[in-house]
Amino acid sequence: xxxxxxxxxxxxxxxxxxxxxxxxxxxxxxxxxxxxxxxxxxxxxxxxxxxxxxxxxxxxxxxxxxxxxxxxxxxxxxxxxxxxxxxxxxxxxxxxxxxxxxxxxxxxxxxxxxxxxxxxxxxxxxxxxxxxxxxxxxxxxxxxxxxxxxxxxxxxxxxxxxxxx
Amino acid sequence: xxxxxxxxxxxxxxxxxxxxxxxxxxxxxxxxxxxxxxxxxxxxxxxxxxxxxxxxxxxxxxxxxxxxxxxxxxxxxxxxxxxxxxxxxxxxxxxxxxxxxxxxxxxxxxxxxxxxxxxxxxxxxxxxxxxxxxxxxxxxxxxxxxxxxxxxxxxxxxxxxxxxxxxxxxxxxxxxxxxxxxxxxxxxxxxxxxxxxxxxxxxxxxxxxxxxxxxxxxxxxxxxxxxxxxxxxxxxxxxxxxxxxxxxxxxxxxxxxxxxxxxxxxxxxxxxxxxxxxxxxxxxxxxxxxxxxxxxxxxxxxxxxxxxxxxxxxxxxxxxxxxxxxxxxxxxxxxxxxxxxxxxxxxxxxxxxxxxxxxxxxxxxxxxxxxxxxxxxxxxxxxxxxxxxxxxxxxxxxxxxxxxxxxxxxxxxxxxxxxxxxxxxxxxxxxxxxxxxxx
Lengths: 165, 439
Hints:
The structure holds two protein chains of two kinds. Chain A has helices spanning 11-26, 30-35, 65-76; strands spanning 37-46, 59-63, 88-93, 97-102, 107-120, 123-138, 141-151. By secondary structure, chain A is an alpha+beta fold. The radius of gyration of chain A is 16 Å and the shape is globular. The N and C termini of chain A lie far apart (36 Å). Helices cover 32% and strands 22% of the residues of chain B. Chain B has 15 helices and 21 strands. Chain B has helices at residues 8-12, 23-26, 28-41, 166-170, 174-182, 204-210, 217-220, 222-235, 245-250, 257-263, 291-299, 301-309, 355-369, 374-389, 422-436; strands spanning 19-21, 44-48, 57-63, 66-72, 78-82, 97-99, 103-105, 112-114, 119-121, 147-151, 154-158, 189-191, 196-200, 265-267, 273-275, 315-317, 321-324, 329-337, 340-350, 397-399, 414-416. The longest helix of chain B is centred in the C-terminal third of the chain and has 16 residues, at 374-389.
């Protein structure tokens, strides 16, 4: 066993980070949300149950910061007609569980079951999912290396999902 | 009250030379007639034979609203069967796809059937002695679709006996499938990468028309493709830096009217046609290392170049199937209700070619056709607004007049300006014909 690494996050801080991340999405604070990602971070929403490969199996989303930035800019756009009116969303998280903490490798993995509601006009869709966050300390702050969102019904015929889970 | 049932003249009246009546999109009776007539009189795409490589492999899907299945029989042929037990109607297949072994066994009462549909055995059969079972519908086994064609791996079926044969129905339009298959150095495709399933609250024909609607990308997708270009400009360190695959895919949606005018549309009879005769939004993708060498080795340089120089954008196979040859992707628009359509996006591996091609295809599908795709959101918003707007009684007509030529209906095939709506008119002429063929 190695000793405690100075500046390593506590389990409570990891859980707090995940809760805060969901809050930023619900409050449409997308710029702050994007800042939570490491420069090489990815947001991944697999298409297949238990999917292991994001490259040769397609996904609902597999996006680096550039693609996430495009989405966020698009949400603000004057001619973004699918966001007139804007979608709203709402997360209910279980307490994030710390599945792995590897201080030497600077890698922390949390697992968070959640319900996510996205609504626009008179439609409201409810999704159940598990979020797996792979986090690292970068410049003294926790950052997302990978946020993986596994929908319970990942392979169902889905309606539009316009925001972030 | 029935406005249309059995009345070919009333159905014909919905399609004028340059406009179509909104009932083709919103009316329940017309939708039911489409299911009964249009989807039975036309050759509808079922699936790809790589989904059922081994004897006993099956895949369940629908034609119109009817559940069907395709299955590889012991002799290697692919059969298409109506997916119901002849006994009580129970759907025969349990999973979407799987292997039945040597025979199908109904999960309800264990009646069993060979993989060509014929009845194999009934438990406790003596209970049917002297009942005249030999004269029943049930004894015939699982009903079989009689008109099935495996064209270079693509399985099509026509439910009714009326209507043209396969070659007559598709004619020269099969050149798009040929080109996609030829892009494999060994001439073979395999379904790969999973299927994206996106539910649309709109009529299925809106998705079909949008395939050759080249006046919408720079308008409806400005917020997606235009934003992608802007963000890349701001974030890329130098103007010479190679664009990421995603930007290569998004950017051409912002091409000018002139680009789309010059890219051309080709129409064929029976409602088929394609955009991208001379170039297309797929023309300027980066070369995949090693691929051209493989193609040259397989076909010789001249033929390899000819295959890869085809950049057809969307080929629309009437009624509800579309092929993107240059990126090995297909979509199927499955009608569920007048205002409900399931869009399925399938992708292929080019056997013998680098997997980088499959990766690009999957990236395209994910960015453009997924329920989570911003370009998909742009399009669906327009379809749903149309589905709503069409309930206005003051004007029940949809205009499809752009670059109309009064002589065009006489022409079997033509290459025309890429912003023409001729292909939409072509589709509705075919719609009118195949809707009423069996009335």
